[in-house]
Amino acid sequence: MVGNPGNKAVVLLSGGLDSTTVLALALRDGFDVAALTFDYGQRHALELRAARDLAERSGLRRHAVVSIDLRAYGGSALTDDIRVPKGRSDSEIGGGVPVTYVPARNTIFLAHALALAEVEGAQDIFIGVNTLDYSGYPDCRPQFIEAFQTMANLATKAATENIGAIEIRTPLMKMTKAEIIDLGISLGVDYAHTLSCYDPVAEEGEHGRAAGLPRHCGSCDACLLRKKGFTEAGIPDPTPYAE
């Protein structure tokens, strides 16, 4: 996956465990990264702090934070007045599309990433989706990524003028959470500075211990997958949990 030194790339950076690992991979492989983060009306908007901190500490040349209010559509526990599921089993987490799925979110995010890639002159877009330890989201599947890449190369000036094709890179696609954590640790990622929780808990008087972050709730799907990953990797979990 190594790119030529200085090749430009766009990395979708949420501030979570997966996207932070992808950012570290892109930087290791010599890409000149522009990161893209979204304030989309999410319940866990505190993740924006993590993304900004990570971009700054990584010395990125550009970090765009784009506001898109997906609350206008609702339909998800992350953008609507719907309870975030807690304490689900592994089979429940992997057993269908959960209510935390945000309709068309990755389609929208990748479309914006494509626009930024055109402006930046980048041919590579990185996104931290995977199909093993994931919560059943349809827009994390390889079929979706392949279809979007095909569309991207029909829609961009660079592709139609044979300047260069767009590639959607998904380096974590076939990795478990434990494998992702192992990889990130080998790249020097400090996961204490990431936020995965769907329903983070802010503390009175301060906002958590790591990078100004709140505590993870400890029982939503994202927290349970995160805990499982550290346990299976045999690596101490640095995450501050409320439970």
- Assigned CATH superfamily: HUPs
**Biggest sheet, open or closed, and with what strands and sense?**
5 strands, parallel
Average pLDDT, to the nearest integer? 90
Q: State the name of the first-level CATH class.
A: Alpha Beta
Helices and strands, with pairings:
Elements: E1 8-12, H1 17-28, E2 32-39, H2 47-57, E3 62-67, H3 90-93, H4 105-120, E4 124-126, H5 142-155, H6 157-160, E5 167-169, H7 177-186, H8 221-233
Parallel strand pairs: 1-2, 1-4, 2-3, 4-5
Characterization of this structure:
Helix content is 35%, strand content 10%. It is an alpha/beta fold and 243 residues long. The protein has a single domain (8-233), classed as HUPs (Rossmann fold, 3-Layer(aba) Sandwich). Strands 3-2-1-4-5 form a 5-stranded parallel beta sheet, sandwiched between helices. Helix 1 (17-28) packs across helix 7 (177-186) and helix 7 crosses helix 8. The radius of gyration is 17 Å and the shape is globular. The relative contact order is 0.17. Mean pLDDT is 90; it is low at 204-211.
